[in-house]
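Lab notebook, bench 4. Continuing the backlog of folding jobs that were queued last week. Each job is logged with the same field layout so the records can be merged later without manual cleanup. Today's entry covers Phosphatidylglycerophosphate synthase, a 262-residue chain. Filled in by technician R.K.

JOB TYPE: sequence-to-structure
TARGET: Phosphatidylglycerophosphate synthase
LENGTH: 262
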Amino acid sequence: MALNNTYDARLVQQETAVGAGLQILLLALLGTAIGMGPAGWLTGLAFAVATWAVLSRALHRSRPRSFGPANRVTLGRATLVGGVTALVADSFESSPPVTLFVGLTAVALILDGVDGKVARATGTSTPLGARFDMEVDAFLILVLSIYLSMSLGPWVMLIGGMRYAFVAAARVWPWLNAPLPPSTARKTVAALQGVFLLLAASGYLPYGPTFAVAATALALLTWSFGRDVLWLHRTSRVQDGEVEEMLELAAEREPERETVSS
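JOB STATUS: finished
OUTPUT FIELD FOLLOWS
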């Protein structure tokens, strides 16, 4: 529903500013607790500013009446993801405390199952909220992939980069932008990515099981994306065939029209 006055618009924008403020507060707490270096601070601040700017622009375009309770949960999760991102950036200089890293990531993953339920329970589901939730998920997977790649190798980043590669490919092949049918398997694989990557990145497992967990996550994600791409390709071929049949039928009827008109 569109905004009725500037007060509502200002209030919605204030919520994104509060989110950025909470992000900076979390960075300050992390910095005090572990003595976070410049890389962690700069990355965390960049994440806070980018989240505020992108979300504010999206809200300005969609113009919702209110920010909504589900989006507040997602914004809180984004704040935690910003903290995880800062810890991963700082890990290039010093290893982050395992308990802190696992704790922040685990809470962010748990909250992933909360915002959707809140949206449905309050009747506040929106395309913006769904996209916000998806982008936070995708970025957390990317960050965990980068962190894990330092111990297992760059191949792990295929997990975090696969969704972004799909988005880039959709700019070249527009048929990839078509909506997909609901799939429990797709949702399950997506949910398992964070769990598997956190388990592998926690350091609780020996190298062999860690490698196996990450490889399983990549295999499942490759299967899920591959299945969706094949479905989209087949669907686009069917649609193209229908268009060609319509054009051929129109061409066949054209002489009949000319005969009648003459």
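OBSERVATION: Residues 1-7, 256-262 have pLDDT under 50 and may be disordered.
SIGNED: R.K.
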